[in-house]
Every structure is written in structure tokens, then in C-alpha cells.
Design brief:
Blueprint lengths: L2 E2 L6 E3 L2 E2 H15 L18 H18 L1
Antiparallel strand pairs: 1-2, 2-3
């Protein structure tokens, strides 16, 4: 059963929030590509990413979490 953070309402996965996992994955991607996106352009900060892109990273992070747990 999924839990929600009592403060902000984000879904919690164990002690992790989906967004925290997505941010970590996005950061790792940046570290592995010298902070360049697939076009070779500088990656924006997480906060500057458009919402649909943040949502896609969250979906990917949740999918990985579901596979490993």
C-alpha cells in the first residue's frame, strides 16, 4: 500500500519519494553525460525541466523501484 507524505502529499515509496528517486536518476544521467542531454546541449536543472519531462523521469524511477522491490 502506498503512503503519502503528511506534509506535502507526495507518494512515498518506503522512505523514498518518487520525485527524490527521479531527481537522483536525472542527476546520475547528467554525471554520466558531462551534464549534456541527448542533443549535446547543457541539461537544465531539475526545477527548470518542463513538467511532462519531470513526470517521465518519475514514471521511470517508479518503474525501476517496482522491479527491484
Amino acid at each position: 500500500m502506498e503512503k503519502q507524505c503528511p506534509t506535502c502529499g507526495h507518494r512515498l515509496l518506503g522512505t523514498f519519494q518518487v520525485e527524490d528517486l527521479a531527481k537522483g536518476a536525472y542527476s546520475a544521467y547528467g554525471l554520466s553525460t558531462n551534464n549534456k542531454n541527448f542533443r549535446g546541449e547543457e541539461m537544465p536543472t531539475w526545477e527548470a525541466l518542463p513538467l511532462p519531462i519531470q513526470t517521465a523521469w518519475k514514471a521511470a524511477a517508479k518503474s525501476v523501484f517496482d522491479v527491484i522491490t
